[in-house]
Write a structure and sequence with these properties.
It is a single chain. By secondary structure, this protein is of the alpha/beta class. About 30% of the residues lie in helices and about 15% in strands. The chain contains ten helices and twelve strands. The strands form five sheets. A three-stranded antiparallel sheet has the order 1-11-8. Strands 4-3-7 form a three-stranded parallel sheet, with helices on one face. Strands 2-12 form a two-stranded parallel sheet.
């Protein structure tokens, strides 16, 4: 995802699908790191960003393993070069290896591939708590022009090359905004898929980016800048929550309360692990209620 997706403060329409959904958008969300290799394992770790250590995390039981031990059915679908150890030892599938003709080429796939036949998997789920992780490539540079199909090339002229520093700033912004327009369809379509199962399951979705991107601000491009020097363009991420009415009712969640808190509260990827544990009602000492973004809006 990108920083302009569903920001509510951008003149261009880059999220027409999500605007039709009853999502809760967290305006003040930050990442653990500025690159996938740090942020993805961090968000599924019990360690906070300030004390996150990659080497130590490698030897700790990761968040998804805690859920697996609690009997949660897990699936990770990958479309961004690997889960960076976060999905090791749980069921996972690299969708790029499927080489679906209409969605994949030259070793990469459009993100909609993550939903390919996902309904068939859901149809086979037994009556148990389930977590499905869809890892997108999203608006990942520098080849922004490859991150969306031709039908989503709405903003032109675009920067159709990898040498983005040589592109006109307007063209680069157009290309990035086209990625956002396409990225908007993925959570929108996912919510529509989940809605089709509301008669069988209580369904919910958390959607967020692992990092963001610099587009030439202060002469910086892409991501991966060390945290202490990183601009907000790389660390301020989109994060949203969608709960079906049935899920909210079953869990005693006041969605109006969530919306109010999402407007003002500072949240980060460190909240994801504990929020997921709370959403699936996993009882473990690893769970910290004060880090659960939903807990304070649950009715007694």
């Amino acid at each position: 995802m990108g920083r302009k997706l569903f920001s509510g403060r951008y003149a261009r329409e880059t999220n027409p699908g999500l605007k039709q959904q009853q999502v809760i958008y967290y305006r003040h969300a930050t990442s653990c790191g500025t690159e996938t290799a740090v942020s993805v394992p961090c968000m599924f770790s019990r360690m906070a960003r300030t004390d996150y250590d990659t080497a130590l995390a490698h030897y700790q039981e990761r968040g998804l393993y805690v859920m697996a031990h609690a009997g949660v059915n897990l699936l990770w679908r990958e479309n961004d070069g690997g889960c960076k150890v976060a999905c090791d030892r749980i069921p996972h599938s690299d969708i790029t290896r499927w080489q679906l003709k209409d969605l994949c080429r030259d070793g990469y796939c459009q993100d909609e591939v993550l939903l390919h036949r996902l309904n068939r998997y859901i149809d086979c789920i037994r009556q148990q708590n389930t977590l499905i992780v869809l890892h997108q490539i999203g608006s990942h540079g520098p080849a922004y022009y490859l991150r969306y199909p031709a039908s989503m090339r709405q903003f032109t002229p675009s920067c159709d090359c990898n040498q983005i520093q040589d592109c006109d700033r307007h063209a680069l912004t157009n290309t990035y905004d086209n990625t956002l327009l396409y990225t908007d369809t993925i959570p929108d379509d996912t919510i529509r898929l989940l809605n089709s199962y509301r008669d069988r399951y209580n369904v919910a979705l958390i959607y967020l980016s692992d990092h963001d991107e610099s587009l030439g601000e202060r002469g910086m491009y892409l991501h991966g800048t060390p945290w202490m020097f990183a601009p907000s363009q790389q660390t301020h991420i989109p994060m949203l929550l969608w709960l079906s009415p049935e899920y909210a009712a079953a869990q005693g969640i006041d969605q109006r309360c969530l919306r109010q808190r999402a407007q003002n509260n500072n949240v980060s990827q460190n909240n994801v692990f504990h929020t997921l544990l709370g959403m699936i009602n996993v009882e473990t000492n690893e769970y910290h209620a004060d880090m659960d973004m939903i807990r304070s809006c649950r009715q007694p």
